[in-house]
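Provenance

Sequences were taken from public entries as deposited. Structures were produced by running a predictor on each sequence independently, with no templates supplied. The record for Glycine betaine/proline transport system substrate-binding protein from Actinoplanes philippinensis is shown for reference.
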Amino acid sequence: MSRLLPRLIAAIGLVALAGCASGEAAISPPPGVPKTSRCGTVTVAVNPWSGYAANVAVVSYLLESELGCQVEAVELSETASWAGLNDGSIDVILENWGHDDLKKKYIDRQKVAVELGLTGNKGVLGWYVPPWMAKTYPDITDWKNLNDYADLFKTAKSGAKGQFLAGDPSFVSNDAALIENLKLNYTVVYAGSEDKLIAAFRKAQEDKTPLLGYFYEPQWLLSEVKLVHIPLPNYTPGCDAEAEKVACDYQPYDLDKIGRKAWVDSGNPAATFIKNWQWTNADQNQVARDMTQNGLSADDAAKKWADAHRTVWEKWLP
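Predicted structure for Glycine betaine/proline transport system substrate-binding protein:
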């Protein structure tokens, strides 16, 4: 673990991470792990948000300390992570948000990937405002009233329209289409990263400045700043089938894990461990907050969680 995770969090603005290629040769296990470990090297995709980094921290810590694996992480976008399952450079995606199109391509048609079950996390994507705005303008939480407040959200970057703040441009989102199809007088402006999006919402609450933007759960910030979700027209299956015509809210997700089929079929104990791994939004938020706000290294945050939850993770072991 110490070889990997001090470099893990480049995507959330901490330190740079060097990606490594996948390998399956046996390695010398750490002290206390049987020398018969068949785990070898596990190559994990790292997507650019803090909750994902928390997943990698805990899973990597336990794979290395309990199963004698060597974990290598590769920083990739969501779409590129799936492509890595196809070319063999990635063994596992630890947090997948839907992507039915990619499942059809890589699981159903190409048969190079398999589902590894749910993470236990409940995923919510959507539009949010800081709590002070919902208190001051209670009807702003009805999307039909957003045009009445567009002038409040104008910025130098949004021009004559209200600003809608999005995060990392690589995040899969429907916001531009939603604004167009719901006939809202807004334009999408990108913060550039999860860190910058978090900073913008914190500042908006502290300074009582207007902000409307994209956000999601699980996310540690919500335990500190109770952002208020603005429901859009109800999601129904298929309402987002054509991206340019989307006029409904985001689909709620039961987040899942995806593995490279050849790696899973090899009987690698790490694949069994990851199949068994499930935790809660609160678990993820605790580790992510320790890593991003409380000054703990990824190793230390993972160890802190593992020491307090032995009866949970022991059930994940093969």
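The first helix runs from residue 50 to 67.
The domain at 5-120+255-316 is CATH 3.40.190.10 (D-Maltodextrin-Binding Protein; domain 2).
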